Amino acid sequence: MHPNFDDSLQHNRRLFFGQTGLRFGAVAASMIAAEAGGIRIGSSCFADSPSEPARVHPALAGLPHFPPKAKSIIYLHMNGGPSQIDTWDYKPGLQEYYDKDLPPSIQGGQRLSTMTSGQTRFPVAPSKFKFEQKGNCGTWTNMDLFPHLSEVVDDIALVRSVFTNAINHDPACTYVMTGSEIPGKASIGSWLAYGLGSESNDLPAFVVFTPKFPEDSNGQALFSRMWSSGFLATRFNGVALRGSGDPVLYLPNPEGVSRADRRAMLDSLQALNGRTQAEFGDPETATRIAQYEMAFRMQSSVPELTEIASESAETLQMYGPNVNDPGSFAHSALLARRLVERGVRVVQLLHRGWDQHGDLPRQIGNQCKQTDQPIAALIKDLKQRGLLDSTLVVWGGEFGRTVYSQGGLSRDNYGRDHHPRNFCMWMAGGGIRGGITYGATDDFSYNIVENPVNVNDMNATILHCLGIDHERFNYKFQGLDQRLTGVEPQRVITELLA
Amino acid sequence: MAWNEFSEVTNGGLSRRTRGIAVACFSLVMGVVAGNAVAQHDEVVFNRDVRPILADKCFACHGFDEKKRESGLRLDTFEGATAALSGKQAIVPGNPSDSELWIRIQSRDDSDRMPPPTTHKDLNPHEIEILTRWIEQGARYQKHWSFEALGAVATPNSPPAGRNSIDAFVSARLQKEGWELSPEASKPILIRRVAFTLTGLPPTLSEVEEFLTDDSPNAYERMVDRYLRSSHYGEEMARHWLDVARYADTHGLHLDNERQMWAYRDWVVRSFNRNQLYDQFTIEQLAGDLLPNPTPDQWIATGFNRCNVTTSEGGSIDAEFYYRYAVDRTSTMSSTWMGLTAGCAVCHDHKFDPISTKEFYSLYAFYNASADPAMDGNALLTNPVFKLEAEADQKRLAEFDNAIGLAERELDASASKAEYRDPATMEPRSAPQLLESVWLDDEFPPGGKVTSGPGQGTLFVSKEQNEPVFSGIKSLKRTDGGLSQDVWQEATAPLVIPENATLFAYVFLDPANPPKSIMLQFHKGDWLHRAVWGDYEAIPWGQVNTTQRVSMGTLPKPGEWVRLEFPASTVGLSGGDSITGFATTQFGGTVHWDKVGVSGILDPARDPKRSFLAWWRSVSGKDVPGLSTPLHAIAKGGPIDSVDAQQRAALLRHYLIRICVDTQPQFATALSALEKLRAERNAYYEAIPSTFIYKDAEKPRESFVMLRGQYNQPGEKVEAGTPSILPPIQGSESGRPLNRLDLARWLVSPNHPLTARVAVNRFWQQMFGTGLVKTSADFGTQGELPSHPELLDWLALHFQSSGWDVKDLLRTMLTSATFRQSSHVTSNMLELDPENRLLARGPRLRLDAEQLRDNALFVSGLIDLSIGGKGVKPYQPSNVWEPVGFVGSNTRFYQPDRGSALYRRSLYTFFKRTAPPPYMVNFDAPNREQPCTRRERSNTPLQALQLLNDVQHVEAARALAQRMILEGGSTSDERINWLFHTILSRKAESSEVVLLNHQLALHTARFVENLEDAKRLVHLGESKPSENMPPQELAAYTLIASTVLNMDETLCRN
After folding, report:
1. How many CB atoms are located within 10 Å of the residue A136 CB?
2. Is the peptide bond before B454 cis (omega within 30 degrees of 0)?
């Protein structure tokens, strides 16, 4: 007997294509789940209420591992390596060391990048900026650069002792975003989209912005691998929402084609595909029918998303003067909130221009002018809508910068080279204990003296906030259980958790 | 609790559970038919049933890796598993209850149970059952299947007529389930399936016609042979291979600039088209450079080893990247030919496969000798490269050389007649005088290197272009948004600063776009002499308030030529200093420079620009380009009396023509003609493309085991060698160290167990969609077992004995009844074998990214089918490269091509690694950073949006609609039928015709009402619609064509 000629198990077909009026979305959902390694949708901590339609992007079976604090994450990546000394690692004692050589005992014969390894002197450059203790927590805050963020420090858990292994941009960015310096691994956003899916049926699970940055700053390259799915299926790639042009590639109908034309065409196409489905019996055909419908829905859901005129004047004002400029950091930050509101799992903003080898004070001022107010507004905005409790906000770069000046030094002007041995990141929102400062560096912000945190410890902590045990979150590839946090032991920084 | 009680309880629980499992298991087993099928009373087979469990759950702590081995117990060998350890034995063959392993895996005590609960690797009852029965049956071990030698395999029974050996193996396996092969698919489906499989293109109407009307018994075989002979066969085969080879058109890291090695891509196409045997294909790519007198093709083939990503990021450490490149090349070789994921052994002994770290670094030693540098220089061509000189090129170059020789001789002849007296030898000596030397006017001084950027290159503009010029015929112009400059440096004839010198330059600032600041910089041993006008902070170079950065005040007035001048001492330069470089620098704006130089009191006898002897002394010990070897030696040696008079005269001629300010003007015209000729020759030569090749360095680097995979932590020294689990490698007789050629020959030696298996499996995957080993990149113990082990071995042996004949292998696969089956699947079949691993139906696969685009271009008639050449840039939405590109990168801005380049096959699309073509990424193409042996086949809404809305597809639909109207007949029924024939090689069903006619009527009515919409739609894309075709009709048909192009049946090979 050939199995193809035995159709007695008709109930399976009905199960898939449903007499119960199951929407195509649900069919697609079960198929996507089935495709993801033969695993069916299991019970989930994000259980859908019976009235809701089934999710198009379901979580993997068994995920999250435990009830999560945060449902979504907004990851703010300041690309280029922001100076920790000029942002969050306050070192008042450095003023006395102005233009004195960094003591060799501090430098400790560590590796230097070849951009400064040839310098004959390593003169200490104290930060020129004014710091104050802010909030109830008293976190030392740079009042020149972060006048707005200073208002929300009570929500922020600051980590001053993050370190990485990479001393150059490309490997360091790859490391911070994929947990490995070697290209080809999955990015953190892809991991989360893969594991947790999305609560939105009309938007992608993982969205990326690459907002504009000041023209005169040193803009390092971004790489699509920073939001690439690596070895995971490419449907877990981040979808880059674009500031100019169509927000999603190929979103609008061609010129001259109306929505009604498209509907007529899809009605016909879906009927033709129904015939194909009957002829070959391939479940992929049903998925394709569902995806064409999803595409049709996205053609209205995405423009609705980017239509910010519906926001109140107060809200728009809060994000600052650039909020109406598509592609600006402020505009992207507001869209990030709107995405999270609509159930998108991961939003990443990658802001370039933080690689300040020279002329650092002026350049970092411009960078902060673009980002300080929108980030503070994002936190306040999430909070006033009750979303901050379920949204994790992360801020950081790929490494820190040296305490000694690269090139010329004056009280008001200096540059700094790459410094992987310590830098600052902070987190706020879902699962995070606000108003704390964790980890410490020596008087020169050159070595960690308390509570070192590897980039992958941060990643483990992020996963934890989203209800994932990083050691149990694996994907088999090249014979190994790949994980975001790599093979070395990493730990969740429980001290940061609420 | 006594041991016995515990055991009873457990056993009771287990047997109850097993009964449940046996039922649930049927579907589970069928669900993963890859070989886990163990019915209740069958013999447990170690490789099939047990090793996967041990590998996944136990080997991490009790495996091959000595350093991670817990309690000294290893379970990957019989000896290890049965050794006595503190009075206990992990496995007592035949006796589970005496086996410590068996006791521990069932323990309910968390501190006792294995695997430890903290590892989250709990065994399920089914797995415990298998281990139990395996121990009962004697705990027999086997070597991992893929390391076993290939032995002759008998076909299960001789295949019936119309079937071949493949079918015999597949049928035998199906019979075990009581199944059989599906009937053959229809002819239209078959020809489309074969055409896409072998050429990546759909069949033409005439090819379909020829096949459908061929009633001979071997019509199918003849059709397959026609496609095997097609020149597009090589293109389709290359596409798959280039995923493995990680080929792309940029370096991949940091700036991600363009690199030129498309000749390698074209070589792959050629190689498949001429059916190069796979062993030779292997040898030439891995070691073509080591063959005796390599042919150009053999050089080009070595590009395989250069396809890895490289960097030139400032600050990078060379040793780190030498190390990384060698690791990448080793891992790529290992996974490509052996299906071994050796990369894991970079850091630690491979936990699962028997490759030690030391063995990995022995393989690495073959590659840790490369001639290419650690930093790629962000250059189009990073050495070593191979010039693709054709015969015509050589002829043209010889013509240039003749003309240059003639011009040189003429110039020399007139220089011999020139009047010149060296002021240094004049009596009486002339007194120092006020002299002006111009360094920059119309061009930079000869004998130095000109660089510029970021942004535009060096640009001289003339009055004819309506540009401001102060002196001569040209001025130097630069426009930029930020810090940018032109630099002249590495001077061979240094510029001497006279006494009481004044430096000067003429500058013109564009009033519409003034800079923030401008700067002049001078190089005396170092760039530490700078004068800046305007914003002092904008250009942050040099220690402030020192001669390294001197503020000269505000910017000069824009809109007119202003002479800037200042004493040389202001920037720390004094009489007698030799300047070997200067730069004109700006921050933002548009700036013209002209006539840059120095004036001051100078003794002509000491001025290299006026005295031959002074010049000769100044170049002493330095390299002087543009001189023949003997003259160069003399120039570098400095003036001595013993120099041959003739050579001295030749050197003097060089000086008079090129250096001396008093005589140089009289030769200027002839010299510039000569230089122009040289420039033309260079331009011609440069335009001949080159390609990256692989070579060993003169001096090989020593190789060491790198501890924990750290480039700066060498451990034990290693020599090139191969893993001991595999057959020994044969070296040369002379006893020289092993090299890559030995390695390549070892891979394709008949007794290598992996190479043929891995290759046939990948080809099988290409034909059938999934390999017999699904994990085509992993033949190690973590990979999946083959679904048809005997068939895999039979194919491997067949491949070897055919002499590694790829076309023969593919013909065998494609002419099997297995390949020709209908792909129809019932829900029953889906439930039992969702992935079609048993092959009871034909393959049905979504087309790959390139095939989808090529299909649309092909059926529309837009396609340009020319083969090979530089990568092309088809339509791409704006802002794909720009938001991620490095500011100074030459692949920051995407500039699409025009004309037929828009319609080239996708194989030739320029591939930028950090922002690959979106139409490919959207359909699961890899980013070519690492080898990819298997693409996913995802199904997403973004794909639907692309196929419906991408201008490439809309334009193709319109061109296809035009063909419908012109070629498809006069009625809509005929045209719809023609459309189905063209796209799907079949006629339209009547229900389909009714549906599309209805849709057509809707669209036509709409476009008649909205003629403007119709016009906009039919004018999308660069190609033009036919002028005498009513737009409303064409627009309506465009949407019909687009509909059928978007059918699931169209997007798949069925």
Report:
1. 9
2. yes
Cβ contact, residue pair B344, A413, below 8 Å: no
State pLDDT tens for residues A435-477. 999 999 999 999 999 999 999 999 999 999 999 999 999 998 7
Nearest to A407 among B537, B538, B540 (CB): B540
A35: nearest CA partner in chain B? B938
Contact predicate B620/B638, CB 8 Å: yes
The helix-helix angle for B318-338 and B231-245 (nearest 10°) equals 130
Mean of all residue pLDDT scores within chain A: 86
Q: Which of A228, A249, A300 to mutate to test the interface with B (most CBs of B within 10 A)?
A: A249
B111 vs B104: CA distance, rounded Å = 10
Instruction: Select from A89, A91, A87 the least CA-distant residue to A78.
Output: A87
Contact B1049 A12 (CB under 8 A): no
**Ordered DSSP codes for B615-637:** HHHHHTTS--TTS-HHHHHHHHH
What is the ipTM score, two decimals? 0.76
User: In A, which residues are within 8 Å of B549 by CB distance?
Assistant: 408
* Per-residue CA distances from B908 to A249, B868, B872 (Å): 22, 7, 6
Q: Which of B253, B328, B349, B948 to mutate to test the interface with A (most CBs of A within 10 A)?
A: B948
Q: Which of B846, B942, B953, B1018 to mutate to test the interface with A (most CBs of A within 10 A)?
A: B942
Contacts of B11 (CB under 8 A, 6+ apart): none
Q: Which of B889, B921, B941 sits opposite A298 (nearest CB)?
A: B941
Predicted confidence at residue B173, as pLDDT, reads 92
Residue A1 has pLDDT above 50, yes or no: no
Residue type at B800 in one-letter notation:
Q
Token pair, residue B520, equals 């002049």
Q: C-alpha B32: how far from its chain's center?
A: 35
Quick: pLDDT tens for B599-647: 988 888 888 888 999 889 888 887 777 787 888 888 888 888 888 888 8
* B941 to chain A, closest Cα gap in Å: 5
User: What is the rounded CA–CA span in Å between residue B279 and residue B433?
Assistant: 77
Element containing residue B286 per DSSP (H, E): helix B278-287
Residue A362's region, left for phi above 0, alpha for psi from -120 to 50, else beta, is alpha
Radius of gyration of chain B (CA): 37
b/e map B602-630, b = 16+ CB within 10 Å:
bbbbbbbbbbbbbbbebbeeeebeebeee
Among partner residues A223, A249, A265, which is closest to B1043 by beta-carbon distance?
A265
- Share in percent of chain A as helix, strand, coil (round to 5): 35, 15, 45
Helix (H) or strand (E) holding B706: strand B703-706
E-strand stretches of B852-946: none
CA B159/CA B816 separation, integer angstroms: 10
Contacts of B307 (CB under 8 A, 6+ apart): B245, B246, B247, B248, B261, B264, B928
Amino acid at A321: P
Identify all chain A residues contacting B1014, using CB atoms and an 8 Å cutoff: 256
Rg of chain A on CA atoms, in Å: 25
User: Who's near B641: CB < 8 A, 6+ residues apart?
Assistant: none
Chain A nearest-CA distance from B710, in A, is 11
* CA atoms of B1022 and B1018, how far apart (whole Å): 11
Spatial CA neighbour of B183 closest among A264, A275, A161, A4 = A4
Do the chains contact at B344 and A479, CB–CB below 8 Å?
A: yes
Asked if B805 and B275 touch (Cβ cutoff 8 Å), the reply is: yes
Query: Please, is A34 exposed, middle or buried when counting C-beta atoms within 10 Å of its C-beta (0-12, 13-18, 19+)?
Result: middle
Query: Collapsing DSSP states into helix, strand and coil, what is residue B551?
Result: strand
What are A444's two structure tokens? 């020169």
Contact A264 B1003 (CB under 8 A): yes
